[in-house]
Amino acid sequence: MPREQFNMRRHQKAYPALTMDRVMIELGAHAGGDLEPINFCQASSSFNPFEHVDVSLSRDDLGKVTPYASLNGSLGLRRAICRQYREDFGYDLQPERVCITAGATEALLIAFAMLTEPGGEVLLAASHFPPFRCLAHMFGVQCRFAPVNERHALDVEQLSRLITPRTQAIVINSPSNPHGTALTAAELEAVASLDVPVIFDEVYQALALSDERIASAIAFSDRHLIVNSFSKSLSLAGFRLGYLVVPETQMGLVADVKATTSFSSSAAGQAVCEALLEHRVALLGEHRALLRERWRTFSEAAEALGLSLYPAPQASLYGLVDLAPFQRDSARVAVDLARNWAVGVAPGSDFQTPDPRFLRLNYAAPSSQIEPGLRRIASYLQRH
Q1: Residue 103 · residue 229 · CB < 8 Å
Q2: What is the Rg, in whole angstroms, of the alpha carbon atoms belonging to the chain?
Q3: In a domain, 272, yes or no
């Protein structure tokens, strides 16, 4: 009897679907077409640090970074990160507690692997970065969602009521994606005082739109985890470099997990990043100045086109276009815009349920694309 043909679908595991992934596919179909694609969906800044700092690697330098890097990352880069926390927050972080990762994505993956087991729960803000719940799904963990307050920030007072014996971790994104709202130092301390491990995701902490410094949870990292990345602060998304700060008691565990994810992060990228960090203060100043200029351009163009925006973020790369006046489903709008208008946006439904009816746009896109992209969005909404 002939063997039954293997059917992959029978073994296929369900996985959380994100509309923004479909948006990127639809947007890619316009490459080389009549309408130039404008990508407000992807989360990277158009700031170029190499316009301000010259970093070059010689042939000898490149020869030194071809082998695997150290498991936890180069000591020079980890020391530079520690120096940053000492200068900014007066916190004496030791380089042994820092693990260099392939962006914040791997740092989050390692954190979930360290803290969660199938059947447990993690607490997230009701409005959150979608990969948090994707990682929970990957590790067989249930999500519980804490409400957000009138600032669109996680309501810290509600957290303690949601903790159960199954709660394995709390994930805090401050400043948050998509709203760009930061928790205060007192709120971070209140979260840290709960008897549950916390993953503090701080990838936008250095990108305040004002001169006000955004609080960090680094002072509580002796018992909790800190995730950060150079993808946002130094605009090095393509280098895929982030880091995870862990308590001394978990230094061995993070090394064990890192050894089975990527083993080591890009050695060449780490060398470049370490050189850039010597100019960190100047580069961050230039980057924040660019973001302030882009936000003005973005918000003024949106107002002129009749698009209503949520309040300016405290720190992030995103502006939120309010869809409530149009009574349109954000996922459908995002796909329509990508397919028929060659504009990529992220729908609010990817970040929160039920659909909060907004579109997340990256205002840090090239300035030449901001007004034309917003004009296409306004034209689409007016037609519908």
Answers
A1: yes
A2: 21
A3: yes
| Per-residue confidence (pLDDT) for residue 267, from 0 to 100 | 94
What is the rounded distance in angstroms from the CA atom of residue 63 to the CA atom of residue 78? 21
Instruction: Dump strand ranges (E) for the chain.
Output: 38-39, 98-101, 121-125, 142-146, 167-173, 198-201, 225-229, 242-245, 318-322, 343-344, 346-347, 358-362
H or E stretch covering 293 = helix 280-304
Burial of 312 (0-12, 13-18, 19+ CB in 10 A): middle
In-domain check, residue 36: yes
Sheet holding 142-146, edge to edge: 98-101, 242-245, 225-229, 198-201, 167-173, 121-125, 142-146
Out of 225, 244, 278, a domain closes at 278
Task: Give bridge partners of residue 201 from the DSSP assignment.
Answer: 173, 227
| Residue 140 structural domain | 56-278
Q: How far apart are CA 59 and CA 311, in angstroms?
A: 49
* Cα torsion 346, 351, 353, 355: sign: negative
The residues, ordered by sequence, that sit 6+ positions from 16 with a Cβ below 8 Å of its Cβ are: 130, 133, 134, 137
pTM over 0.85: yes
Pairing label, strands 167-173, 198-201:
parallel
- Tokens linked to 372: 């034309």
pLDDT in tens, 116-146: 999 999 999 999 999 999 999 999 999 999 9
Q: Are residues 286 and 272 in the same domain?
A: no
- Cis omega before residue 311 (within 30°)? no
- One domain, residues 22 and 112: no
